Amino acid sequence: MLIGQGFDAHRFAPDRPLVLGGVEIPHDQGMLAHSDGDVLIHALCDALLGAAGLGDIGRHFPDTDDAFAGIDSRILLRRVMESLAERGLSVHNADMTLIAQRPKLAPYIDPMRRVLAGDLGCDVQRVNVKATTMEKMGFTGRGEGIAASASVLLSEPDV
Fold first, then answer.
1. Which intervals hold domain 2-C-methyl-D-erythritol 2,4-cyclodiphosphate synthase (predicted)?
2. Overall number of domains in the chain
């Protein structure tokens, strides 16, 4: 078994859709980012890559590469999963936390879990997404952006 953890944060920006965990969420702002700014998937990718000893999302999908401008983060996640599959690794479980003062995310948690489970190739019961606030402290508490953390456990092939 291999353990990985990841973290990501982005500030809000006008005139962009808000996408978290592969689900578009109605909101007046989205994330400022080179890609679609899905902080949850970015944290998840970092956790997956870290567990496999493969660096981080910036190494594989740099924001200096125009090929990734505006890209759907689910495409990045699927590419990470292909790299893991090539090494015989699979997701045992994933646990993630979104940190946002706004918008309220509870109605979107189950759809996020279903989307992510599909991309991770595991049962939805092995994918957990939580949301919390910072009680109006810090950049997320002031409503300036959203952060996410992720932990994963990967299974290695039997040797």
1. 1-154
2. 1
What does the pLDDT look like over 78-121, one tens digit per residue? Answer: 999 999 999 999 999 999 999 999 999 999 999 999 999 999 99
**Averaged pLDDT for residues 145-150:** 98
Instruction: Residue 133: give its domain's CATH number.
Output: 3.30.1330.50
Q: Please, which residues have CB within 8 angstroms of residue 46's CB and are 6 or more apart in sequence?
A: 4, 5, 6, 7, 8, 56, 57, 150
What pTM did the predictor assign? 0.95
Tokens of 19: 């996408």
Helix (H) or strand (E) holding 146: strand 145-155
- What does DSSP assign to residue 101? S
What does DSSP assign to residue 119? H
* Number of continuous H segments (helices) and E segments (strands) in the chain: 5, 7
Report residue 97 CA to chain centroid gap: 9
Domain that holds residue 136: 2-155
Give the residue ranges of the annotated binding site for a divalent metal cation: 8, 10, 42
> b vs e for 101-110, b when ≥16 Cβ sit within 10 Å of the residue's Cβ?
bebebeebbe
Residue 20 has which token pair?
Answer: 């978290």
